[in-house]
Amino acid sequence: MTLEIWQQFIAFCHHQIQGIEDSRSLIRAVGHAARDFARAHPVLYKVMMRVQLELDDPEFGLIVREMIAFYTMALKPYGLDDSELVDAMRLLHATFYGFIAAEQAELFTLARSHDASYEWILQTLIDALESKQNQPKKV
């Protein structure tokens, strides 16, 4: 069942990012797609998040490869080396899913709009990636 949930999530994300080529817009779109899916299907999302996905898993490997392909495409313009690409994928993944987990657990108790905070976070992620792009590579 969890595989089907992940497949549904990936299809939802594909639909949300269809036709988007700009990296900034792709990052925003996938961030919103993950949050929108979690809001629309909170129980399915919680089940989905309890499964550790492994690249070499015969059932879930395709899901992992699709996620890696998306992140690679979205992050390509930033000129990251292989290690930085993994770090950036983890940054995006942890930010999107960490925010969603805190929101679902009702941990945000301050008066500021969750939507406004999420937009600020997405913009800050993009700004950080662009800032990193403009830094000289360490030898």
Features:
139 residues, mainly alpha, Tetracycline Repressor, domain 2
Describe the protein's architecture and organization.
It is a single chain. The protein is built from six helices and no strands. It has 139 residues and is mainly α. It has one domain (2-133): Orthogonal Bundle (Tetracycline Repressor, domain 2). Helix 2 (23-40) packs parallel to helix 5. The N and C termini lie far apart (47 Å). The mean pLDDT is 91.
Give a brief outline of the structure.
With 139 residues, the chain is mainly α. The protein has 6 helices and no strands.
Q: Indicate the low-confidence ranges by residue numbers.
A: none
Secondary-structure content class: mainly alpha
Under the CATH scheme, the architecture is Orthogonal Bundle
End-to-end distance, in Å?
Answer: 47 Å
Spell out the CATH superfamily: Tetracycline Repressor, domain 2
Helix run count: 6
Strand content: under 5%
> Which descriptor suits the 3D outline?
globular
Helix and strand pattern: HHHHHH
SS elements, strand count: 0
User: Portion of residues in helices?
Assistant: over 70%
Q: What does the largest sheet look like? A: none
Q: Mean pLDDT score, rounded?
A: 91
Taking all Cα atoms into account, the compactness measure Rg is 15 Å
The CATH class is identified as Mainly Alpha
Number of domains: 1
Give me the CATH fold name.
Tetracycline Repressor, domain 2
